[in-house]
Amino acid sequence: MLTRRELIRRGLWAPAILGAARGVFAQQETNDVVLNPSPAVVPFTRRLKIPRPHLPLNRPGATPLELARAQSIVQQCTAEDRFRHPAADPCDIYEVVMKPGLQEILPGTLTPISGYNGTYPGPTFFAERDRASIIRFVNRVGTITSVHYHGGHTPPDSDGVPMMSFGSTDIISPMAPYPGARTNVYPNDNPFPATLWYHDHGEDDTAENVYRGLAGFFLLGPNQSEADAAVRAVEAQLPSGYGRYDIPMVFQDRQFNADGSFAYNNFGHDGFIGDRFLVNGVIQPYLPVARRKYRFRWLNGSNARQYEFSLSSGEKFVVIGSDGGLLPQAADVKSLRMAPSERYEVVIDFSRYPVGSRVYLLNGLQQLSGRGPEQINMDSATPLVEFRIARDEADPSTIPDDLSPGVAQYISEHLTERPGLQVQNVDIRLNRGNGAWQINDRFYDPNRVDVVERLWTHSTWKLTNESGGWSHPLHIHDEEFSIIDRNGHPPAAHEAGLKDVFLLGPNDTVRVAAYWTGEKNIGKYVFHCHNLEHEDMRMMGIFEVVP
Ligand code: C2O
Ligand code: CU
């Protein structure tokens, strides 16, 4: 059977012959494939899983075999001239095999997944700012892959852009110049610690690869240097301890066949919407909590679904961080919208609830297609997580008023319009053409550069959604950015920090400030819609940072 990527690869998606293709695939092309509803599941019977930390090969206590592997990875990177930092600097070296796995998601059946090290979600990476992570990714999943560290300030040859896709060890594809494996070198020199993630970015193949399980967290923390002293002090006051009081949650929707396998409509170009809600790979989990504050790192890892989060108690919660790090100031919200690939960090205080009570994290957004959400309807909100207030506990944590003076200063110094500042204006229009979504009337072309940016200069990207009733979360690689205005108004408090994804609802215009940094970050990157089916249908462009 022809898949989407084969259609594209064989050129069958070219607009001129789209009509012919439509004749052959009439049903699929009109997106009329209706998947059967997933088998019923009783919610809140399984505990939230915390993805395991992934340990470096060169950690203290590693086996001689692990150290030898680490050394071979370094040798390979040296031979390929991949280091952009002094090779003698301390670093963490990893190997990850992308491979099939089986996971019990529906009780009593096993779901085949594709996972980093065979697990879904993938293991969590931890890094300290400015300490490099070197990761060899081995492809044993049999599809075209590329691993992108989303939000990382990474040199282009390690960024996992689709132009660098590679096949598995036993497939040599014309689109895979690096068959079998690829090592990415991450300097981790983002300006601030942040909740980042890694996921597949294979050319034309991203949506299905991510859907089958290729995604995980990458948590960038402060280092021990003077530069990070202020952030370190704030982090120490916040609830902490990975998996204890500092809890990652990736939200994804999936659909299941009767045999427990993931259902996926390969021709659903609008964006895949599933009928089951998973958090860290578990359908509607529960989590026992103490009567105290918790820090949550929320990631919308869905292909196309947006969420509007609120608490069943109706009470407010506190947003403390966005895509690129802690917010300048904490923001109290009653509800929070999240588009695909956005991250928000929030603090919820459970001391308000008695032991034995339950509070639910709700999604109030109705969404039936990849077009975008229909409406907020709290009467039929879906509870995604059940918090069980299980015990009393002392709470030494606090939320400082000024969470991140550093981020505030970075934004005012580098990401704010001011008289006399030389700025390049970049116009990005999201529009519909030739039966799919385009950027400035064009489809992605791996051989074309759409925007040129000069290193150490500023630019303003004006993102305009002209595609009728559709929503598009636009993601720009390489840097963290800030919103100047949204439809002419300053951003809401929770959107006033560093971001790399910008949700464009129907007819929205968002202006984004950029500052291009890093001698090693010269070269070609992509920007694209993070509705992954739109991205695979080539709603993407290339920008090049030049010296
Ligand atoms: Cu999260 Cu280019 O992607
Ligand atoms: Cu889109």
Structure description:
By secondary structure, the chain is mainly beta. The protein has a 7-stranded mixed β-sheet. The radius of gyration is 22 Å and the shape is globular. 12% of the residues lie in helices and 36% in strands. Strand 1 (91-103) and strand 2 (111-116) form a beta hairpin. It has helices at residues 4-9, 15-24, 26-29, 64-79, 206-211, 229-237, 405-414, 532-536; strands spanning 91-103, 111-116, 125-128, 132-139, 147-150, 181-186, 194-200, 215-221, 246-254, 276-279, 282-283, 286-291, 293-300, 307-311, 317-322, 325-333, 336-338, 343-349, 358-363, 365-366, 375-376, 382-392, 423-433, 436-439, 451-454, 458-465, 472-476, 482-486, 501-504, 509-515, 523-529, 540-546. The site of copper (II) ion has 6 residues, from loops.
How would the blueprint of this fold be written?
Elements: H1 4-9, H2 15-24, H3 26-29, H4 64-79, E1 91-103, E2 111-116, E3 125-128, E4 132-139, E5 147-150, E6 181-186, E7 194-200, H5 206-211, E8 215-221, H6 229-237, E9 246-254, E10 276-279, E11 282-283, E12 286-291, E13 293-300, E14 307-311, E15 317-322, E16 325-333, E17 336-338, E18 343-349, E19 358-363, E20 365-366, E21 375-376, E22 382-392, H7 405-414, E23 423-433, E24 436-439, E25 451-454, E26 458-465, E27 472-476, E28 482-486, E29 501-504, E30 509-515, E31 523-529, H8 532-536, E32 540-546
Parallel strand pairs: 1-4, 3-8, 9-13, 12-22, 23-26, 25-32
Antiparallel strand pairs: 1-2, 4-6, 5-7, 7-8, 9-10, 10-11, 13-18, 14-17, 14-19, 15-16, 15-18, 19-22, 20-21, 23-24, 26-30, 27-29, 27-31, 28-30, 31-32
Copper (II) ion is lined by residues 437, 472, 529, 531, 534, 539.
